[in-house]
Design goal:
single chain; 3 helices; Pnp Oxidase, Chain A; 169 residues; Split_barrel_FMN-bd; seven-stranded antiparallel beta sheet
């Protein structure tokens, strides 16, 4: 086997390798919300994926250790919110453990199926949970889109190299 020039020495699979590689992968930032027994829950995610056009379905991933997991594990519907570049603080709030995610200054309302819908986002969807698939220390949630709106124009918030950023021309 011939060595390929300019490649680093390969490392065995590990959580550190996974994190190091995915720091180089730019991803859109969303907030997932759900109704919960003790009030609404939500978390920041970069794992949103379009799954199917017919029927319209998407997926996202949530850690089983997340404070939002108990509510998401029981929820019939979830909200998906595409964040704009102006919403770095909102993304940070929903990513921070122990934060009052739905307190001021977060603006939201109860939407269809009791799902919390955030104000000021680029787009939002309410989705019916179709499946929860165990995947290591996470679950992949597959959901069918029920309704939503591309609320406003603007540039999306992006996560890259361990921080929230914006697209550049």
């Amino acid at each position: 086997m011939t060595a390929t020039p300019h490649l680093d020495t390969p490392r065995a699979a590990s959580p550190d390798l996974l994190r190091a590689v995915f720091r180089r992968h730019a991803a859109g930032v969303v907030v997932i919300t759900a109704p919960g027994d003790a009030g609404p829950v939500g978390f920041t995610a970069t794992s949103l994926t379009s799954v199917s056009a017919e029927p319209p379905m998407l997926s996202f991933v949530i850690g089983t250790g997340s404070s939002s997991w108990p509510a998401v594990s029981r929820a019939g519907h979830v909200g998906v919110h595409i964040l704009g570049e102006h919403q770095q603080e909102l993304a940070a709030t929903f990513a921070r453990s122990g934060a009052d995610r739905f307190g001021a200054p977060t603006a939201w309302r109860e939407g269809p199926q009791g799902v919390p819908v955030l104000d000021g986002v680029l787009a939002w969807l309410v989705c019916r949970v179709h499946a929860r698939v165990p995947a290591g220390d996470h679950h992949i949630v597959v959901a069918e889109i029920a309704l939503g709106a591309p609320s406003r124009s603007g540039r999306p918030l992006v996560y890259h190299q361990g921080r929230f950023t914006a697209l550049r021309d």
